[in-house]
Amino acid sequence: MFLSALLTKAGYTPTRIATNAKVHLGDGPRITLIELDTQAEVPNLTTPPSRKKVTEAKQNCPISKALASVEIHVTAQLIK
Predict the structure, then answer these.
(1) Which of 11, 23, 26, 31 has its CA 20 to 30 A from that of 67?
(2) Which structural domain, as residue segments, surrounds residue 50?
(3) Which residue stretches of 1-80 are H helix?
(4) Crossing angle, helix 2-9 and helix 47-60, to 10 degrees?
(5) DSSP codes joined into one string, 24-43
(6) d(CA 58, CA 73)
(7) Per residue of the chain (80 residues), what is the pLDDT tens digit?
(8) CA 53 to CA 37: how far, in whole Å?
(9) Given phi > 0 = left and psi -120 to 50 = alpha, else beta, which region is 77?
(10) φ/ψ (deg, to 5) at 53
(11) What CATH number is attached to the domain comprising 33?
(12) What is the pLDDT of residue 50?
């Protein structure tokens, strides 16, 4: 949702954004890693600005901030 907000604020209207999350548990149990795989369909957006927005969303999303002690990996694909 945060990525969608950032893109919209930048003048791009996403047609679709879908994210799958894989959560890894360690001893305790505790969350040791979160892998996010995002696919976005955003008309008129090129790959470089898209990567910048994904990084910005990862760093500033309220959920990412709440989970700051957990390693988070994000892969993103721009679908045309």
Answers:
(1) 11
(2) 2-79
(3) 2-9, 47-60, 62-66
(4) 130
(5) EEETTTEEEEEEEEEEEE-T
(6) 9
(7) 899 999 999 999 999 999 999 999 999 999 999 999 999 999 998 877 688 889 999 999 999 999 999 999 999 998 87
(8) 15
(9) beta
(10) -70, -35
(11) 3.30.300.20
(12) 82
C-alpha span between 38 and 77 (Å, rounded): 6
Q: Which run of H or E residues covers position 18?
A: strand 16-26
Q: Measure the CA dihedral 40/16/18/76, to 10°.
A: 0
Q: Is 7 exposed, middle or buried (0-12, 13-18, 19+ CB in 10 A)?
A: buried
Residue with tokens 């995002």, as numbered in its chain: 38
